[in-house]
Design a protein that fits this description.
Layout lengths: L7 E6 L14 H15 L4 E6 L2 H11 L4 H25 L4 E5 L8 E2 L2 H9 L3 E5 L9 H12 L3 E6 L20 E3 H6 L7 H9 L4 E5 L5 H6 L6 E4 L1
Parallel strand pairs: 1-2, 1-6, 2-5, 3-4, 3-5, 6-8, 7-9
Antiparallel strand pairs: 8-9
Length: 238
C-alpha cells in the first residue's frame, strides 16, 4: 500500500461484514480477508482501533427479541459484539498480528474491561485494540461507540466499513442516477439525512471535528487506499 496519511485510525466494522455470503453467523474466509487488510495497514505503521457490531449474530435472535424490553435486547446485542471481537482476535493471532479486546461490559474471565489509558498504550505499542460491547449502555448504537472511542483515544479519522462504496444521493440499488459523494460536510449529511451514521454519532464526530470515511469493506484493498488518502468511498468532514 502507499504511504499512510493517518497515524491512528478507528475502524468501524459491522457484524454483517463477518458473515460474508452466509445469512447468519461468522464465515471464516470473510474474517481472514478483513484481518489480512487490517494487518497490511498495521504493518505500515498505522495504529488501529476497531469497533465491531453484532448484527450477524443478533439477526438470528431478532424474531425471539420481538416485543422484548429494549434494554434487554440491546444488552444481548452487546454480548454478540463480544463474540465477534473474540473471533477477530483469534484470526489476528493466526495472522501474526498482536491485538487486545476491551469490553465496555465487565466480563473479565473472557476479555479485559475498557480502560482508556490502557487502550492508548496498546495502540502506541502497535497492537490492534478491538472495542466490544458498544458503549456499554442500551439505546446507543455501535456507530456512537465508534465515534466515542475514536474521540477518547485521539484517532484522526473514523473509517466506516459498509456494504456500499460510499454515500450516495439516493439508494444506488434502486436508482440508476444515484451519485456517489466524494466529499460531503457534516451539516449537509445531517440536513439531507444521508444516513452516514446515526444522528448521535454524526453529531459527536462533527463536534470533535473528527472526519468519517465511508467505504466498502468488500472491495479488496479499499482499507489501505482510504488510509493512504486516495479517492475511496466518501469523506464526511467539518
Amino acid at each position: 500500500m502507499a504511504a499512510p496519511r493517518y497515524k491512528r485510525i478507528l475502524l468501524k466494522l459491522s457484524g454483517e461484514a463477518l458473515m460474508g455470503e452466509a445469512g447468519y453467523g461468522i464465515e471464516r474466509e470473510s474474517v481472514e480477508r478483513i484481518v489480512a487488510e487490517i494487518a497490511e495497514v498495521a504493518r505500515a505503521g498505522v495504529e488501529i482501533g476497531v469497533v465491531i457490531g453484532g448484527g450477524n449474530i443478533f439477526r438470528g435472535l431478532a424474531p425471539a427479541a420481538a416485543g422484548m424490553d429494549r434494554a434487554t435486547a440491546d444488552y444481548m446485542g452487546m454480548l454478540a459484539t463480544v463474540m465477534n471481537a473474540l473471533a477477530l482476535q483469534d484470526a489476528m493471532r493466526r495472522a501474526g498480528l498482536a491485538s487486545r479486546v476491551q469490553s465496555a461490559l465487565n466480563i473479565e474471565q473472557v476479555v479485559e474491561p475498557y480502560i482508556r489509558g490502557k487502550a492508548i498504550r496498546y495502540l502506541e505499542e502497535g497492537k490492534v485494540v478491538i472495542f466490544a460491547a458498544g458503549t456499554g449502555n442500551p439505546f446507543f448504537t455501535t456507530d456512537t461507540a465508534a465515534a466515542l472511542r475514536a474521540s477518547e483515544v485521539g484517532a484522526e479519522i473514523v473509517l466506516k466499513a459498509t456494504k456500499v462504496d460510499g454515500v450516495y444521493t439516493s439508494d444506488p440499488k434502486t436508482d440508476r442516477d444515484a451519485r456517489r459523494y466524494r466529499r460531503v460536510s457534516f451539516d449537509e449529511a445531517i440536513q439531507k439525512n444521508l444516513r452516514v451514521m446515526d444522528a448521535t454519532a454524526l453529531a459527536l464526530c462533527r463536534d470533535q471535528k473528527l472526519p468519517v470515511n465511508v467505504f466498502s469493506i468488500y472491495r479488496r484493498g479499499a482499507l489501505g487506499r482510504v488510509v493512504a488518502g486516495e479517492d475511496e468511498g466518501t469523506l464526511v468532514h467539518a
